[in-house]
Amino acid sequence: MMEKDIRPPRLPRRILKLFLTSEEKSTILTDLDEYFHEIAKGKSRFISRCWYWRQILGSVLSLAKRSVFWEGIMLKNYIKVGLRKMKRQRGYSLINILGLAIGLACCLLILLYVRYERSYDRYHENADQIYRVVEELDLSGNKRHMAVTPAPFASAMKHEFPEVKEAVRFMKGNFSKGKVLVTHGTDNYYEDKWYFADNSVFEVFTFPLIKGDSKIALKEPFTVVISEEKARK
């Protein structure tokens, strides 16, 4: 073999270096390289490289076990020391534990709140392009914001602003204290949460339908889209 062919592989050396201290690197790696060169002189390149890999893997497993063992002992000692300090300084420890628990609880609540707010109505395909128009009222210096605008405002927005691709209006059905009378055969009952909407509602929002075609669902007057629960009722 040529000299360049009996060099030990680089990858196992890099792996072993991760588990060695600076003092161990100079001794263990040097010894492995010397043994590798001796074996490579009388064996093929494949056999010598396999031997080197086996030695590296065995050393890594041994070093990993050693690291886990000593880290477990250190962790055990830390726990003992911590418990002893908690017994001697109960008031101080209680304040620290309560402060940590309250801080973690607040962080989790804030995280859940932000996650909920950022996920609001994100299931719509064009969620990043949907905007809600809000009216600002100035009542003697007291400003209020209401999501209520005049009915012609939607068509005016589409006409005046080319950026507006589509607009849809909603109006809550306020009949008989917010409910609407539904008749099915001989059954009559009141239902709430009814809204009037433009036929472009399914072009702006993504509401999957179990039955029917969303493109023509509200094209004609006196048509309605209901939930599965209402349909079963």
Radius of gyration: 36 Å
Strand/helix succession: HHHHEEHEEEEHH
Q: What class, by secondary structure content?
A: alpha+beta
Name the helicity range.
Answer: 40-55%
Q: Give the mean pLDDT.
A: 82
How is the largest sheet built, in terms of strand order?
Answer: 1-2
Instruction: Please give the domain count.
Output: 3
Shape call = elongated
Beta content comes to 5-15%
Could you explain how this protein is built, in words?
The chain has helices spanning 10-17, 22-42, 45-88, 90-118, 153-160, 201-204, 228-232, and strands at 135-139, 142-146, 170-172, 179-184, 187-192, 195-197. It is of the alpha+beta class and 233 residues long. It has 3 domains: 3-87, no CATH class; 89-120; 127-232, no CATH class. The radius of gyration is 36 Å and the shape is elongated. The mean pLDDT is 82.
Features:
elongated, 51% helix, 233 residues, two-stranded antiparallel ribbon, alpha+beta
Summarize the structure.
This protein is 51% helix and 12% strand.
Topology of helices and strands:
Layout: H1 10-17, H2 22-42, H3 45-88, H4 90-118, E1 135-139, E2 142-146, H5 153-160, E3 170-172, E4 179-184, E5 187-192, E6 195-197, H6 201-204, H7 228-232
Antiparallel strand pairs: 1-2, 3-6, 4-5
